[in-house]
Amino acid sequence: MAMSCIRLVVLLCLVVPATVASPRKLRKSPTEIAALDAAAPPPAGASGPTTFFEVDRPLRPPPGSSGPCSTLLLSASFAFTFTKPPATAAYSPPACLAAAGGGASAISLAVLEWRATCKGVQYDRIFGVWLDNAELLRGSTAEPLPDGVVWSVSKDVTRHASLLAAGGNSTLAVFVENLVNGGLTGVYHANVTLHLYFHTSPPAMPPPAVGPADLIVPMSRGLPLNDGLWYKIQNASDATSATVTLPPNTYRAVVEVFVSFHGDDEFWWTNSPGADASGPFREVTVRVDGVLAGAAWPFPVIFTGGINPRLWQPITGIGSFNLPTYDVELTPLLGKMLDGKAHEVAFAVTNAVDVWYVDANLHLWLDPGSAATAAGLVSYVAPELVANATSAQTTASRQVLAIGWVKSSYGNITTNVTQTFSFDNTKAGETVNQTTVAHAGVAATGDDGVVYYSVQTQQSFPLLWDSEENQVTVTRGLEETTVAAGRWSSGPPYRSLRTTQQSSVAGETWGIRQTYTYEATDGCYFRNVTSSGYSIVSDQSSEVCAKGTPAGAAGR
């Protein structure tokens, strides 16, 4: 489908000054950072940079893939970047993609690699990577050491294959929000590389609705500008929006939301219900023409300089180098949107304090067998947010249920979408105990009762922060289980991730331990790593699936 079939107009609802640093007590000043570095024993062999890393599973291409074909997309340095434009580079599909068949369906795995280094005194900084104004990666930089730090991120961007394979000239943009002055000396040097793997035999057509989208529409501020492309939300009354006119043959739509929190709201989860007017609860809402389509209840990412930088050296916090994204299914609402008119997709943050960075990508699946689809809404239930607060505890819950049908060349398919959330935060003195639980379900069924695809995902984000006079301990985790089924289902029917991290600082000593267990019907990964100071003292990993698990039962 040619790009002329879609019209996107971004409406910028607010412009705020770039935030330099959080004033909250959970941030060290440049002087304090320098003092920490001077007091701590230097890393072993400190003549060069120290490697920091986020624990994650290695990305493996499907069996029978060729590659990788690696292309350096951009190399740049980021010193004083406030009020300056992003670094940019022209992008066109690598020649190896044309040799492999040219289209998005030739790609079996696409990996975007960020590799960077920095030396001196500097805060961690937020960065983003966009292709044709669509965000591909958002992360925090490592907070550097006097002799330097190096780190890398590898993100699976296969779902963006249609962007990567699109013909014509595109623009890659990278922005690192950095400040250099008399006290902050660190300059970030970064390389962005794309690694492509290909099917070795002519690929079958990907299953409808569950492969990469046919068209990705960016919902960001777009180039040119002197900032990152994300929208900035200052408070609970702010909302930002984009207008979009859908191609008439759209049969599925999903919003991929990028979100991060900074400035006065970087540590939103530490707020006291009574003392802080905004409290400790946050959610990102997505509305279509004012109607709530869904929400994202954010994972409490702690950046690499948060609370105390030693808590995240050399094993950085969960989700800090590669921030999580959140999907909101719009398919049941296509009956409202397939009328050839422009529709508003709006984003807001409940209880927000300055400042949240939010943008999104709209993933659209287009029917190759018809010029236009038809759609209608069957049922919609979205009660108001339920939130309660006492002097020490905050709870919240929400439910969204939407059912709609779409008639295309694939038949008349009804999509049932559910989201349920619960939140519990208890604060006693300098101790915070918080858990967020989220369930998202999508089930598409034909008139004959055949389930075409069904995906059910359950997530839990436990967090315990305990601060005493001379010791800080943070224990947190990410638990996620996904079960997929249906005639069009692709990928593993079952996958589960359980990772738990405990970081502790007492005086001038610190240590981190993290366990990471990923189990899926197409493979497994386990890692148990412990550090003391800057040194790794124990590191065990395996890609063997344990017997008795759903993955092990599949014969892996």
Automatic annotation (TrEMBL):
Pfam families on file: PNGaseA
Keyword Signal assigned: yes
Protein name per UniProt: Peptide N-acetyl-beta-D-glucosaminyl asparaginase amidase A N-terminal domain-containing protein
Composition bias, Low complexity: 38-49
Keywords of this entry: Signal
Domain Peptide N-acetyl-beta-D-glucosaminyl asparaginase amidase A N-terminal span(s) in chain numbering: 59-380
Lineage of the organism: Eukaryota, Viridiplantae, Streptophyta, Embryophyta, Tracheophyta
Entry superkingdom: Eukaryota
Signal peptide: 1-21
InterPro entries: PNGase_A, PNGaseA_N
Chain positions covered by the region annotation Disordered: 38-66
